[in-house]
């Protein structure tokens, strides 16, 4: 894998005007415990992020769209306290700070927006088709290649979420340290390429991901139809566990699609329709969690 992971290669993907705007927001390192943990702590230096009227403060503007990226993580985190395995020379692991005017009222749509941005970056960079497993996992060739963890920056005094940190881990190649169970579920975008020496280096792919996600969030693009069209589960029969860890609550349902609010729409055997905003679903023995 072309492995030139450097700030120079990253910034070369942007115009000079763009570099002047984002240059001091970007940090690439070889290894870190967790990019999300780093930016969550970093956000404390920029408080307050929003004024009482909901406008971005000067420090909020400085922190907005900050990027922390690493070639590996020693304590990568997934949803629900799960570990995200992040070995060296296998993928890219990064987090983006997002501060929104008047705060974030629908965190799920931030995750959905990031999913679409990453799908577009993968397809434009490598020509590999992407599907999305509701709500936050991206699949290529039937295996998970990307997971997304969105964590809110809460302002308790104002009673709102002023911003969030969007954590994204992408596998370019599967790694020998993956255990048997992980290998059965996880894949790499470049796994099917016999010769990837001519593909863009990781820093250029990272730049593409950053551009796509930033553009969707800045323009407030309505991407829900794009998200719906990429659904991996639509039309399939799944087992739903509303209370994670309590199999007594499980039931079987057929996925009808995705709602405009990014809920998973399922139909029960009696024809009843449910809309899920959280929970755990399984398909063919593989467990997917939200």
Features:
seven-stranded mixed beta sheet; six-stranded antiparallel beta sheet; BirA Bifunctional Protein, domain 2; 29% strand; alpha+beta; SH3 type barrels; 290 residues; globular; 13 strands; 8 helices
Describe this structure in words.
- By secondary structure, this protein is an alpha+beta fold.
- It has two domains: 7-229, 2-Layer Sandwich (BirA Bifunctional Protein, domain 2), CATH 3.30.930.10; 237-289, SH3 type barrels (Roll).
- Helix content is 26%, strand content 29%.
- The strands form two sheets. It has a seven-stranded mixed sheet with strand order 1-2-3-7-6-5-4, with helices on both faces. A six-stranded antiparallel sheet has the order 11-10-9-8-12-13, with no helix packed on it.
- A hairpin with a 2-residue loop joins strand 5 and strand 6 (143-155).
- Helix 5 (107-126) packs across helix 7 (202-219).
- The relative contact order is 0.15.
